[in-house]
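can u pls check wat happens w/ aspartic acid
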Amino acid sequence: MKKILLIQTGGTIAMNAKGAGVELDPEAWSKVLYEEIPELSEIAEITTFPLFFEDSSDLNASHWIQLADCVENKYNEYDGFVILHGTDTMAYSASALSFGLRNLSKPVIFTGSQLPMSSIRSDARRNLVNAIELATMDFKEVGICFSDALFRGNRATKMSIGDFDAFGSPNFTPLADIGIQIQTRVLDQFGSGDLQNLASYSDEVFVLTAHPNLNPEFLEGLNLSKIKAVIIRGFGSGNFCIKGTYSLLPFLDKCREHDVVVTIVSQADFDSVDLTQYTAGRAALDHGSISGNDMTLEAALTKLMFLLAHYDSKTDIEALFQKSLVGEL
Ligand code: ASP
């Protein structure tokens, strides 16, 4: 029987009803989880590991490092890893770990739920059972198991607040479809050799959402000597205002003067940024921006955080950002 490490980090799955809402309750959670374990043991030999206990909106790079260290420390003892995690930032954590944990030869599967495990209509049990089963299989990367699919972690994004089908992977086919049978669709491996834990992330990245009437004066307050990369969430194929007082081009020029990497992703989930298509995109290119292509915001952000922590040269960072490192492009 395969050995699976079940790492707990909090999230709704571990919460309890509180008035009209839910809240974290470590004691109640450990009772609920331990009731499930005997049945889960039909699928795999499971060891639980409480790492931290947070709503995932409170997580940051220090938690991603704890997760990567935990997988690294236990790597030889287990065949697969399941990480129970809140849905709000699950795609950020999964993306960050995909860049941090290299040469994976075992599955690292994130899952969580839309309703607490303790709630009668919860989706938690189904997601947990599926994630454990997937963690016994041949996947060699970081994935997100939710509802009836396993997604590549750095391609997934939270798409619904209210549906049990909370995640999607707009630009990449799921790694597996979960029905009566589990149908594996993609079995890739990124790198071979021993596991490398490179988890280290810079927080010198700023994300800017373009919108009509975005006042460039607000951007003058940004201290560009402290920011090393900016991600602009543009419209459609990567456009934003380039005319009159609302033009973002002077901001791009200021970024270039400060050696800040400027990348463009889209507010649209499906398909790829193409900065050659419209005048605005071409202007962005002329003013020193680079395309995030079809990356999710979560992947683009964590990739830049990862690259900035490992490389100093803007040219290297820009080149690596535009290259697929672990299937994110
Ligand atoms: N706020 C919760 C979290 O991300 C939401 C969830 O788990 O679904 O921790």
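The chain is about 30% helix and 25% strand.
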